[in-house]
Amino acid sequence: MRYIGNKTKLVPFLLETIGELDLAPGVACDPFAGTASVGRALKTAGWRVHCGDLLAASYAYQVARVELDRTPRYPGALSGGSASRKALSYGAVLRVLEDLPPKAGFVTEHYTPAGEDGREHGRMYFTPENGSAIDAMREKISEWRREELLDRARAQLLLATLIQAADRVANTTGVYASFVKTWQPNATRRIRLKPLRPTVPPASSALGCTAFCGRAETLLGQAGPLDLLYLDPPYNERQYPGYYHLPELLAQGWEPPPELRGKTGLIPDGDLRSDWCRRGRCEAALRSILELADARHVLLSYNDEGLLPRECIEDAFRASGDPDTFRVFTRGYRRYRSDSDGPGRQYRGDAVRERVYYVRKP
Ligand SMILES: C[S@@+](CC[C@H](N)C(=O)[O-])C[C@H]1O[C@@H](n2cnc3c(N)ncnc32)[C@H](O)[C@@H]1O
C-alpha cells in the first residue's frame, strides 16, 4: 500500500544496521508499525516481533503480515453451502467476495458521486461500481464475523486484502486527504482482491509474533522486556487518520455509522491524533517513550526534514542509554512520490536523508 513513511525500501538499510550492531535475533517491538513492512522483515530474520499502531488499518496489516505464520483455511460455510462443506482456501474466499452482487451502502453513499452525500460534496474517491463492490465485500465480512464463521485473525486477513485492493482503485494521488476531480486510469479498473502472503517464520517454527491496535506507550507497557525496540513515529504535522481515513473506515466498519466531516468525509479521529505530529509535544513524546522502554537496544528512524532536530534526538538518546554507545546511521533516498511542494510546504529537493539513531540501554 502507498503509505507515508513506509519503510519497505529502507528495510535492507535497517537490516544492515542491525547486522553492523551485531544484534542477534530475540524479542523486538515495532510500535509504529504502519504497513508492518519492518515487522515482517524482522520476523523473516528470526525475531519474535510485537507490532502495534494507533490505526485499525495497520492492525489488519500486522495480523496479515506478521502475526499469522501461514495462510489459514476458511470454513466451507462461507461459500454459502452447508457448514459441513470442505474447508475453503483463502483464494476461494476471495473469489466468493469478488462474485457478490454489488450493494450500494455507506461507501457508495458518501465516497462516490452516485450517493447523495458524495454528489453534494463532489466526492470521487471511488467509481460507483467499485464503491458498491467494496460495500458488498465489507458488509459480508462483518456478517461472517457476526455469525462467528470467522475468527479475529481470518477476518483481519480479509480486511487487509480489501484495504489493499481498494487502495489500488482509489482516485487519489497516494493519500486520501484529497481525491482527484477526474477519474484516473487506476480508479476505472474493476476492484480485484489479490492475496497477501503471511510471513512464514524461518525454520517454520512459530515465533509468537503479535499485533496490537493502540498507543505505542500502551504496547510497551505490556510487551515485557525487549531485545530491540524499533521506533518509526510520524515525523511531521500530517496526522495519519486524516490522510488514511478511507482505509481506516474499511478497517473499523460503519456499525454504527460514523458522523463524517468536511469535503473529504473525514471520520471521527479525536482519539487517533498523535503527539508526534505536534511541534510542541513531539520532544516530550520521544523522551517519555525512551524512558518507558524496557529494551536493550533502541533504534529510531527519523527523516532529516522532521519536526525533531537532530541535536534534540541525540540529547534524548544519550540521556536514556549508555552515551558512549550512541550512533547515527545515514542513508539517502528519493522522496515518496505523493509528497510534493505546495502551499505551506516547500521541500529542499528530491533527495532525503533518512537517519537511524541507536543507543544501548544500561
Ligand atoms: C512513519 S509511519 C510508520 C511506517 C511503517 N514503519 C511502515 O513501514 O509502513 C508512523 C505510524 O505511527 C502511527 N502512530 C502515530 N502516533 C502513534 C502512537 N502514539 N502510537 C502508536 N502509533 C502511532 C501512525 O498511525 C503511523 O502508522
Search tags:
Rossmann fold, single chain, globular, 362 residues, 11% strand, 2 domains, 6-stranded mixed β-sheet, binds S-adenosylmethionine, alpha/beta, 6 strands
CATH class of the largest domain: Alpha Beta
Q: How helical, in percent, are the residues?
A: 25-40%
What's the N-to-C terminus distance?
Answer: 38 Å
**Domain count:** 2
Number of strands: 6
- CATH architecture annotation of the largest domain: 3-Layer(aba) Sandwich
List all distinct small molecules, including ions and cofactors, that are bound in this structure.
Answer: S-adenosylmethionine
Short description:
The chain is α/β, with parallel strands linked by helices and 362 residues long. Helix content is 36%, strand content 11%. The longest helix has 19 residues, at 128-146.
